[in-house]
Amino acid sequence: MYSGEFDKASLFAGGGFVPSQATAAPSSSFSISKDRNVRTLLPMTVKQINDISINDESGAYGDGVDSNTVTIVGLVCDIQDKEPQFVFLVDDGTGQVECTRWAHERLEFIEVNQIVRGMYVRVYGHLKSLQDKISLNAYSMRPVTDFNEITSHFIECIYVHMYNTKLRGGMITQPQMTNSTINTPSKDFQAIPSNQSSIDRWMSIDQIVLNFLRRPECLAINNGVHCNDIARQLNLPIDKLMEVLEYLNENSLVYTVDEVHYKSAVNA
């Protein structure tokens, strides 16, 4: 099923999620006027948006690709009605961002009036920066009616981030697993050699820790699982585990409130 020639980009072909070569970060010979109208719709978390670099000349770039047009999914925390300007504060669990929606036509008013506080929404829009504060100029907002869409969105964010940072540029490799195992009470996991590539690393220890934190019994713990308990359950050295948890936290896959308890951000 997972042959060496498997094209992961085909999973999202046609959806606008995987950037083409035309939307990669500009080189020294890049022509802004030639490619300004080329846009790729990227699924993102608010944390990823806040990490983006924006300037007047080339626009927004994150993970080395054009990130001007994005889509997010989150909870509406506040609404400011300044008709015809409506400002929605959206929280997706990784941060908050203001989404401005202008309404001039009847259908646009119908769209914004159906959105209330405490509702999950899907937002499409263009990123803008004013006084070092990034916000979203929304051109479409709609309520989320199927909550599987929330999980699906985070999976898309993870995939596109991994594609742009790990898989682009001919770095796709087939993970090579060894015979060594990490024993847990429920099953044996394959361990990874320290000298394997970053994509192999993602497919092994990082994924093992992430899968563990997504277990129902771990998700049920309000403040998350203590790092010592994770290390003991997965038979991992604590220093190696903390390195993995830091990596997952930086990529918005897990979160922590005290640097010792960790919880999955996707199913939380």
The CATH superfamily of the largest domain is Nucleic acid-binding proteins
Cα-atom Rg, whole angstroms? 20 Å
Helical element count? 8
Name the beta content range: 25-35%
Strand order within the widest beta sheet:
5-6-7-9-8
- Envelope shape: globular
Number of strands: 14
Order of helices and strands: HEHEEEEEEHEEHEEHHEHHEE
Indicate the CATH topology of the largest domain: OB fold (Dihydrolipoamide Acetyltransferase, E2P)
Main location: nucleus
Subcellular location: Nucleus
GO molecular function: single-stranded DNA binding
Keywords: DNA damage, DNA recombination, DNA repair, DNA replication, DNA-binding, Nucleus
Task: Explain this structure.
This is Replication protein A 32 kDa subunit. It is found in: Nucleus. One of its GO terms (cellular component) is DNA replication factor A complex. Belongs to the replication factor A protein 2 family. The chain has 268 residues and is of the alpha+beta class. The chain has 2 domains: 157 residues, OB fold (Dihydrolipoamide Acetyltransferase, E2P), CATH 2.40.50; 89 residues, Orthogonal Bundle (Arc Repressor Mutant, subunit A). The protein has a 5-stranded mixed barrel. Strand 8 and strand 9 form a beta hairpin. Helix 5 packs across helix 8. It is globular and about 60 Å long. The N terminus is likely disordered.
